Request: fold
Amino acid sequence: MAVRNLRYFGDPVLKTVSEPITRFDASTRTLVNDLLDTVNLPGRAGLAAPQIGVNLRAFSYHERRRIGYVINPEIVELSEEVRELDEACLSVPEMSFPTPRATRAVVRGVDLRNEPVIVEGTGELAQCLQHEVDHLDGMLYLDRLSTERRKDAFARSRKRPWFWSR
Reply:
């Protein structure tokens, strides 16, 4: 178990669709434990495997006193009500933008024993669930912004020392 280094906007792993987890072994347990350790630091609400450089479908969340993980998650339900909420991302530090998100979300996946898991959330947890599944689908929250806001975010991030480029 370890706190892992983060990957930042510009790193190709963040724009790659993650592969399903098919083996539930020690390496999967290590990944989940690392996700939980890394998200457990102050100021963190969620963390997807690509954010630590792993192209597999798993994420952890830490919302208030509720901490957990989901393997092979899929969003199975979203409320019709959508609100623009300020959103930030560990992979796009020092920036936040109002982002449209459903006010309620339900995610279905499995745990380390490959047993079904359902996580339902409203408010911040709903936002987190949608945000983390987006990461697994190769999307950043910036991709959900209006064209004008997205251009501004891309321009600002390219000037930051953390921006990943080759």
